[in-house]
Amino acid sequence: MGKMAKASGEDDQSRKICLKRGLGEVPEDPVCDSGIFCYGPLLEAVQMAAIYPDSKTFVDKKLKLPPGKIIKNFETLLNQHNGSLLSVDEIKKFVEDHFDEEGHELEPWVPEDWTPEPEFIANLRKPALRNLAKRIARLWRDLSRKIKDDVKDNPSLYSIIYVPNGFVVPGGRFREFYYWDTYWIVKALLHYDMTTTVRGIIENFLLMVKTYGLVPNGGRIYYTKRSQPPFLTLMMKEYIDKTADVQFLRTQLPTLVREMEFWEVRRSVEIIKDGKPYTLFTFGTGGTGPRPESYKEDVESAEVFETEAEREEFYYHMKAGAESGWDYSTRWFINKEGGNTGSLKNVRTSSILPVDLNALIYMDYMAISEFFSLLGDSAKSEEFSQKAAKLQEAIQAVLFVAEDSMWYDYDLENDKSRKYFYPSNLFPLWAECYDTKKREDMANSALKYLRKTGAIRCKGGVPTSMMDSGQQWDFPNAWPPLQHILVAGLLKTESPDARQMALTIARRYTNGAIFSCPDGAEVCNMFEKYNVNDTGSAGGGGEYDVQTGFGWTNGVIIDFMVIFGDDLLSDEEDVELMEGKKNIEVDLNTQFNIGRGKSILRRRESNITVVKPEKHELETSEKCIHPALAIEEDDQPQDLKAKIATSIGSLLAATVITKK
Hints:
3-stranded antiparallel beta sheet, disordered N terminus, globular, mainly alpha, 22 helices, 17 strands, 660 residues, Glycosyltransferase
């Protein structure tokens, strides 16, 4: 979703756009069936002309005429200019003549169960918290939308996907529903006793699974071949735990199972480690070509590649990165040395097994097992319990590094753990996909990890990484869902020390929210992400300006209010920040010998090369004192190098996976 300079000045308006990708036959596998919003010469012309500051603007517009008529009119315009050369001014006029403004397909909506002052507020004594909770209640009302009936009657004129029930949008440029954002919205709405609204939101997502076989990334047709982290089952669990609406669960459970089947069939990877096969999950996508909502950005980033096949592979990994929700981050970078530095050209999302995705699917399996048990189907309950157990075993074998007592993403191209700090490494604490007899040990490991990496030493929250790459899912940004997952995971360890650190994270987040949305102020900026260097400052980076509103930001702070109450505000000095001012020894013994326990990947093409891994320097920051987790990987033993050199051809002969 892009940010670009506005076209300005006479010279720029007369600038010629030469069409390249958009001409020719319909793609074999387009991201959707629209020759306007998903592929074709008109999409290419408008996006490459950059007539809007945000690439998402065009693909959210309404058509004034039937799509076939608009396509024919544009072909006529092209024929008048020798097939491909148009000026920006001509393109802009064509859009103005054929499209209405974006955003008018939605209408404001006040949910029938909305209330300005929910019951849980009575448990808050501190005025700042009570008033913020009331302010957020008004934000829920302001962010609530319904899709107009005209979309249902004339779907070909819109890119938005019609759903029958009202919903809460994230805010800003995100005018439609988004998948994983909605989990934190749902969680908070249930605290506001808005159960009817939540059921409607869940019904919308269930309809998406029935229609597309997955929940799309968001509520636009150009999102329908990629999803996002699968939180629908957990939304249902939150709803059932609140309402005990067993009849609704009974009728909809098959659809939850169907969503799991999508991930099992389309996003699973089998690897062999120590002679044993394991199945884990990764992000992917369907459809070819650039992201329609970030078309120009993708095309320009792909210019560094020489062949169309290389460019197409780049587009694939970029769309997979969008499916991850972390768009974009060094977390998905694999450079030629196997490290996480570089630029977007190094995005290799589908070549990485993510800790959080696998732990989340474990949670889904456990919840579905619980659902079947609740409905009296012990056989199906056991089936999903066994799926969860097998996935837990795979997570332990492939993603957990015993010498660090920590989980890491796994690089399938280089067959190694990615020992870089990301909060997602701690997701299994929340999922409890480990031997829970070792809660205390895992709690201590988590506390040590957060301190050793310096992640807990930033006053504005826990950073998304220690890499200041300019990408929005990296340092110095703190994202609300990651703060919540960390807090929830630390609390589940049942450790008093872990609870104290969870409270510290929640307090910093709360202080930031109150700072950006002060009591009594006319303007309330609940940012989608925050800057860890300061309290309440907006984050930045990525392809678009920071957004306000904001769905999951509101949801996280409401859940923290319910969990911690008045303890969220305290005059106590932040002990972790005090510790951060002291000189500390950073343990750099985070080595990983890929000769031990090296896994062999099956069903996936690989470009494994034997190289000396790069060494990452410690990062520093003027405002946030944090020793980044340095990585110094052992060189491979000479005998292993020789063995790989002689056998790598036969080893990779069977390593092909189809991108689905």
